[in-house]
Automatic annotation (TrEMBL):
The lineage of its organism: Eukaryota, Viridiplantae, Streptophyta, Embryophyta, Tracheophyta. InterPro entries: Peptidase_A22B_SPP, Preselin/SPP. It comes from Ilex paraguariensis (yerba mate). It is a multi-pass membrane protein. This is Signal peptide peptidase-like 1. It is found in: Endomembrane system. It comes from the Eukaryota. Signal peptide: none annotated.
Length: 284
C-alpha cells in the first residue's frame, strides 16, 4: 500500500489543476489544428502550409532536440537574453494564431464593422486584427515585466497550440516512430545524462532562470519603477503551478515551490492525439 500513498500528491490542488489544464489544452489543440487545416485549404494559402513529417524528419527530431538541449546546457547564460527576445516574438505570434478565430466569431456574431487598415503582399489587415495584435503584444510585455507564472502558462499553451497546428503526421507508423524516439530522448537526458555530463541536463535546462532582458535595459538607462521589473525570468517551455495554489501567496522564483509539466511532454501527447482525431474527423 505504501507506493499508492506516494501518489497522493496527484490529488493536491496544484496537481489536479495541472492535469485538467493538460486535458483542456489537448482538446483545444485538436480543435485549433483541425480548423487551421480547413482554413488553409479554404483560402488556398500555400505560404502557411502545414509541415508534414516523413520518416527521416521524425527520426531527426530527437537528435535535433538533443543538440539544442546540450547547447542550452553549456551556453544558456550567454544566449538567454537572445532566447528571451526570440520567445517573445514567437509567443506574440502564437497568441495571435490561437485567438484570431475567436475574434472572427465575435465579429460575425455581433455584426462588428471591421474596416481594412492596410493591404500588403496579398495580405489584408483589419482594425480588429490590429487590436488583437496589440493585445497579444501587451500580454508578452506584461510577462517580460512581471514574469508571472500565469502569463508564463498562457504563452506556453499558445506555443503548444501553434506548433501542433503547423505539424502533421501522415500516419500512425510515423507517429509511433516519433513517439518512440522522443521516449528514448527523455529517458536518456533525464536518467543517464548526469553520468556523462556531471549534472542532470534536462532538469538543469528546464529549471534554469534567465536574467530578464527588460530589467537589464531598465537598469542600464536608470528607468523609474525598477521594482516592477523582475530580475529573473522563467522561460515558457513548461507549464507551472504553485504548490500552495489556493493560499493566495505567490512563491519566490524557486523551482521547488512549483509543480511543472514540460512543453515537450505536452507536444508529444498533442501530436499523437491530434493525428488520431483529425484522421477520424476527416473520414466523416
Amino acid at each position: 500500500m505504501e507506493p499508492l500513498w506516494k501518489l497522493a500528491y496527484l490529488l493536491e490542488p496544484a496537481s489536479v489543476t495541472l492535469i485538467l489544464t493538460a486535458i483542456a489544452v489537448t482538446f483545444g489543440s485538436v480543435i485549433r489544428a483541425f480548423n487551421y487545416g480547413k482554413e488553409m485549404e479554404r483560402n488556398h494559402d500555400s505560404s502557411e502550409e502545414s509541415i508534414i513529417l516523413d520518416r527521416s524528419k521524425a527520426l531527426m527530431i530527437p537528435v535535433l532536440c538533443s543538440c539544442g538541449l546540450l547547447l542550452m546546457f553549456y551556453v544558456f547564460t550567454s544566449i538567454s537574453q537572445l532566447l528571451i527576445a526570440f520567445i517573445a516574438i514567437a509567443s506574440a505570434s502564437s497568441l495571435y494564431l490561437w485567438l484570431s478565430p475567436y475574434t472572427a466569431y465575435m465579429r460575425s456574431q455581433f455584426g462588428l464593422a471591421d474596416p481594412f487598415l492596410s493591404r500588403c503582399c496579398s495580405k489584408s489587415f483589419t482594425r480588429i486584427q490590429g487590436f488583437l495584435l496589440l493585445l497579444c503584444s501587451g500580454i508578452v510585455v506584461a510577462w517580460l515585466i512581471s514574469g508571472h507564472w500565469m502569463l508564463n502558462n498562457l504563452l506556453g499553451i499558445s506555443l503548444c497550440i501553434s506548433f501542433v497546428s503547423h505539424i502533421r503526421l501522415p500516419n500512425i507508423k510515423i507517429c509511433a516512430m516519433l513517439l518512440g524516439g522522443l521516449f528514448v530522448y527523455d529517458i536518456f537526458w533525464v536518467y543517464y545524462s548526469e553520468r556523462l555530463f556531471g549534472a542532470n541536463v534536462m532538469v538543469y535546462v528546464v529549471t534554469q532562470q534567465s536574467a530578464n532582458l527588460v530589467h537589464t535595459v531598465a537598469n542600464k538607462f536608470s528607468l523609474p519603477g525598477m521594482q516592477l521589473f523582475t530580475k529573473k525570468l522563467g522561460l515558457p517551455y513548461k507549464i507551472v503551478f504553485p504548490r500552495n495554489l489556493w493560499r493566495g501567496v505567490v512563491p519566490e522564483i524557486n523551482a521547488a515551490d512549483y509543480i511543472m509539466l514540460g512543453l515537450g511532454d505536452m507536444v508529444k501527447l498533442l501530436l499523437c492525439v491530434v493525428t488520431l482525431i483529425i484522421k477520424i474527423l476527416s473520414k466523416h
